[in-house]
Structures are given as C-alpha cells and as structure tokens.
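$ ./design --mode recover --in tokens.txt
reading tokens...
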C-alpha cells in the first residue's frame, strides 16, 4: 500500500518524505486546488535527488478543465520540462465542454508524457459519466485516477470509489480529498491500495505586523494563516498502511 502526499512547497515535500510518504504530488496554487509549480521550484526540487517519486501536477490555471489549444500547448511544454528534470511522473486531466474526456488533447498529453507515470487528476470528479471515463482511461493506459468519487470529499463518494475499483481493469483508483488517519480503514476495507492526502494543518503567520485591511485574494482568505504538512498525520497514515 502506498501513501501519496500532496505538497505545495519544497519544505513540505521534505517533511512528507521524512515522515513516511511513498510518493509526492507537487503543486503550486493551493487556493486554486493545485497548479503547475514554477520552473524555479521544479529545478530546485530535482536537484535535491530525493529518494521518493515526485509527480508534478500539470494544470495551467484554476477553474474548469476545458482548455484552449494555447493552454494545452503550455501543458505539453511543462510535461517536457518535467521529463528533462527527470521527474518520473506527471498529473493532468482535461475535458470538453459537455463534460466528457477531451480524448484528442489527452492523446497529445499522453504522447508528451510517454514513459512517465500518469495520474488523471480530479477533473475526473466533474466529468459527466465516470464509468465511461474510467473505461476510456483504462484504454488509454493511464496509470491511476485520483478521485473523491464525484463528491466534495472521498468519504461521501466512497460508493462510487468502490464501484470504480471493482470495474477498473488496469488503471488504479486512488481516493483523495479528505483522506486522513481517521477514515483510512474505510478505504482499505474496499480493497484500495494507494491513498492521496494533503495531511495539512494551519499555522499562524510569523509576521509581527499584520495589516488586516488588505487581502491579496478575491476569496477574502486570511492572509496570516499558512498551511503546511502535518508530520504526525503523515506518520499515522503510513503506520496504518504497513
């Protein structure tokens, strides 16, 4: 059984690995649900030669997964960069406007990622027909699907996750969103073997001066709260998978 931890900083990657993560999904843009990391971060992380597989997410923007050709071209370039920097896998997904998989552009992305491990991310959770999408991703040779079972969190979507797991031929079903040590057993019981978690905790900003009149995000979030990996939670989950 494997534990994949979603990390939004190099420091969190190191923390997660030191406390038992088997694989890392590396992202920027936490408030957007995960965006392609910067070249600077990808280069620096690759130079550390860490002992665990790190898969960067390839997602050019937040919002929906219906991409223009310009955005697809950027994703292809980012996949090629990940390959040049010796990352062993990438995470991506795309849909067309009716909610089905964008097979034409997926084939382009898969070609760019030839030889790399491929995870189809939670674009799956907003597709119109998850069973059809599963069969198509099986046929395309995608290694795994990250999914919350088309619900707000994986516990709520566990019935679909179990159905997908039973129906899948070669593509591995990896539940994510809300996976913690307190509910891991629910997914082990249905035969799941890989798990995805942000294992996050909130921390106060070390800023002594805090101007509460200004917010940098349109979502009006608290600018003086940081999120990071909870090493104790990573350890708890890993112990439950041994």
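writing sequence...
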């Amino acid at each position: 059984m494997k534990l994949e931890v979603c990390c939004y900083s190099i420091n969190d990657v190191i923390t997660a690995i030191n406390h038992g993560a088997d694989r890392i999904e590396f992202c920027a843009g936490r408030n957007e649900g995960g965006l392609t990391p910067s070249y600077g971060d990808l280069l620096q992380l690759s130079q550390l030669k860490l002992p665990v597989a790190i898969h960067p997410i390839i997602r050019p923007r937040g919002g929906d997964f219906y991409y223009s050709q310009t955005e697809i071209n950027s994703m292809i370039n980012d996949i090629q960069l990940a390959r040049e920097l010796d990352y062993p896998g990438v995470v991506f997904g795309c849909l067309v406007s009716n909610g089905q998989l964008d097979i034409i552009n997926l084939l382009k992305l898969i070609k760019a990622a030839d030889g790399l491990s491929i995870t189809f991310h939670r674009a799956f959770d907003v597709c119109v027909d998850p069973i059809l999408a599963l069969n198509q991703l099986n046929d395309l040779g995608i290694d795994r699907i990250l999914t919350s079972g088309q619900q707000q969190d994986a516990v709520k979507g566990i019935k679909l996750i179990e159905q997908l797991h039973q129906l899948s031929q070669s593509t591995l079903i990896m539940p994510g969103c809300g996976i913690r040590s307190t509910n891991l057993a629910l997914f082990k019981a249905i035969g799941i073997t890989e798990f995805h978690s942000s294992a996050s905790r909130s921390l106060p900003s070390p800023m002594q001066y805090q101007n509460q009149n200004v917010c940098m995000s349109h979502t009006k979030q608290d600018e003086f709260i940081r999120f990071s990996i909870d090493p104790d939670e990573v350890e708890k989950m890993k112990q439950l998978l041994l």
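exit 0
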